């Protein structure tokens, strides 16, 4: 599953765009440098019933922004993404389709 696909599934499950969840995380202070991934995962599990894999995808975006490594961009593996920038504003509005 691509990184973007994880974010799209999170949106389907929660009804919120990844950007809305990142904004909530910031309101909780989860974007602070010392906050551990487990704390964020616990919040996402309690409030949105997200599993660890989906939660960790969102942790990456909360901590690092929408940029991802070029490692899987244009590759043929199962984790390939079309771009090194993730779309956070909802899959229906993603220009990449």
Automatic annotation (TrEMBL):
A Pfam family this chain is assigned to: DUF4287
Disordered, as annotated region: 66-97
Compositional bias of kind Basic and acidic residues: 69-82
Protein's name according to its UniProt entry: DUF4287 domain-containing protein
């Amino acid at each position: 599953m691509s990184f973007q696909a994880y974010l799209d599934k999170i949106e389907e499950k929660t009804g919120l765009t990844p950007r809305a969840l990142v904004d909530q995380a910031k309101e909780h202070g989860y974007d602070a440098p010392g906050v551990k991934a487990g704390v964020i995962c616990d919040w996402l599990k309690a409030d949105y019933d997200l599993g660890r894999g989906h939660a960790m995808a969102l942790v990456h975006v909360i901590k690092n922004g929408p940029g991802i490594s070029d490692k899987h961009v244009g590759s043929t593996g199962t984790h390939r993404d079309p771009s090194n920038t993730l779309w956070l504003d909802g899959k229906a509005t993603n220009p990449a389709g």
